[in-house]
Amino acid sequence: MSQPRDDGRLPGVFAALGRGAARRRWWVVAGTAVVVLVGVLWGTGVFGNVIGGSGFETEDMEAVRTERVLQGPLGRHAADIVVLYESDRLAAGDPAFAGPVRRALDALPRERAERVESYWSTGDRDFLSRDGRAAYALVQLPSGVDQDRVRQYEEIRGALAAPAAEVPGMKVSFGGSTPMTHQVNALAVQDLVRAEVLSLPVVLILLMVIFRTVVAGALPLLVGLVVLPGALAILRVVSTYAEISTYAFNVVSILALGLAIDYGLLMVTRFREELAAGRDVDAAVERTMATAGRTVAFSGLTVGASFACLLVFPSRFLISMAWGGIATVVVAVAASLVLLPAMLRFAGRRVNALRVPFLPPPRVAAADRGRWYRLARGVIRRPLATTLAVVAVLLALGAPFLSVNWARPGDWVLPPDAEARHVTQQMAARFAHDPSRTVTAVVTASGPIARAELDAYAGRLAGVPGVHEAEVTGVRGNQARLSVGYTPDPMSPQAYTMVERLRATPPPPGAQAGFAGMAASRVDVVEMILGRLPLMALAVAVVSFVVLFLAFGSVVIPVKALLLNLLSLTAAFGAIKLVFQDGWLSGLLGFVPAGAVDINYPVLVVGIALGLAMDYEVFLLARVREEWERTGDPAEAVAVGLQRTGPTITGAALLMAVVVAGFLTADMVLMLMIGVGLTIAVVVDATIVRALLLPAAMGLLGRAAWWSPAPLARWWRRYGAAVAEGPYDGQRGENPGQRVPLGA
């Protein structure tokens, strides 16, 4: 343990950083103002650099490779837009209905609509509804690039919708992959803004309630105001070298305020404790940075590392989420370690000024004998029974996840009243077939392919369960295109099996076949993520182990932390499956269950929730470590550590839950998944896991929790990040400086 120097100052980089920030506080404020200004004026330019669309696929997927071939001479044969024309008065064959629709479709220029098909151009009655009062048209757009097609759709949408102005009572709706992407992009922004607007006032009120004074409650918010523009500036830099999806802003939105509050709570609470112990303001800032500042640094390193592990996935969606998380963590830690100590020095003892009316005065919890202390002692007296009971409950809550049906985003993520969702529902209810339920096969051979062999192959594909039609729709040289219509929902288990059987069906002799389309893409996305998941798990385990060992000098603590944090996620995963696949609470949350769970979002929930779980782990264990070094009593260290950090962790979790719970008001199912999954994960981790399971596990381990092999223990004592001397002691106010052996 580090000893105070002869001049009374604490050694170590964090104590020095605190002294420097406090001494040069005006320069710190000026520098922060420049950073915020750059972020607002220049960083917000990232919104012009980001790319919309899905970003769930990668270039090496079979569906993507097949789509690339279709962009060549063979050509695509896709229904990019499904335009649904409905009337409650007229039949589709009535000239008053058919005339305006035909004129609108015929007027589309070929450079904007490569292929247009309808009942009037083909004579196929499948384009008409069974009751005759609705008809649809298919439009294939020229571009093979997702976002280019969105722009092309926006250009012709008005012309396609024009019949609604001519025919009384006509309704025009747009479905298909391109309108779906357009609608998802628009709703994602709306949901994000709504979540922030609803959660921010509640966060403000809770901060005042937790801190009991306006000055203390405002400090974490001040950090949050710096984090957002700073993170945008970093993303602006990243976007010049890599493609960043608009979904990156979801992570920034959640973490910017959440981490600022987490770190602000920890730092301000410790500062108030040091003042209550009789320190002067400068000493309180220094000791706050030497202890809580160190905790923030290691916590941020752990959270950032968790997000960095998402980079093992090649999809733009998850890479964007990773960069959004990394950028936010970097700025949150920097602001907490530089700006916050300067602001604490400005506030001084006025940190307890401007009391909130009608609330008790702020107080610093006693070092021991509080309710958190008594809870920990009670758990430690029965550690095995508590551990078994909590683990059994968490595993039971997570058990439903074992039967999850994985999917990828489609129109099912939209609210029931969205246009694309309406079109899909009408296709299923009123028409013979849904034209969007098509898989395209591309056959490539070394030479020309006999038509008889292609027809025979189409017959074999038509025999696959779930397929209602397969036909050759184009031949060019040594390549052929087949369109395969299918019946099951593209996100159903039946569709997954169907795609696997289609790909297993032998193509013509000497040829190879590839499949594209939503159902095929779903299989590729699921297999890509499941294939990379073990690599992500290994990366998280290794990085977390290294960081936690550097922080605490134990090889047992990192293993215990990983196991507990994974257990804390089980309840969230079980809830996601029950809600979004099985439909529990779907009426309350306002969505129609699709019978599946998007495989991207559990990965994202793991990235965010595991990072936050490590956050709370470091908060608690840092204080336990201080007491362990002071007393050498493992049970007392856990009890006092929980008493000291229990209110802080609970407050941080409550505020984070409020931030993410704003997404429960979202229209998009994807946003709802974030809200449900993260809210449950944060609440379970901060209550059941931190308050019960962690003390029980530490009670079972005893002194062994801090064990390391002798060589590692010696290395850590010499080079590791030891806790600075002088944690506040509620009884004596001094630290006896006892050194506890860590190694074997």
From TrEMBL:
The keyword tRNA processing does not apply. It is found in: Cell membrane. Keywords: Cell membrane, Membrane, Transmembrane, Transmembrane helix. GO terms for cellular component: plasma membrane. The chain crosses the membrane at residues 26-51, 192-211, 218-238, 244-266, 296-315, 321-340, 384-407, 535-555, 562-580, 600-624. InterPro entries: MMPL_dom, Mycobact_MmpL, SSD. Residues 215-346 form the SSD domain. It is a multi-pass membrane protein. PROSITE patterns: SSD. Belongs to the resistance-nodulation-cell division (RND) (TC 2.A.6) family. MmpL subfamily. PANTHER family: MEMBRANE PROTEIN MJ1562-RELATED, MEMBRANE PROTEIN SCO6666-RELATED. This is RND superfamily putative drug exporter. It comes from Thermocatellispora tengchongensis.
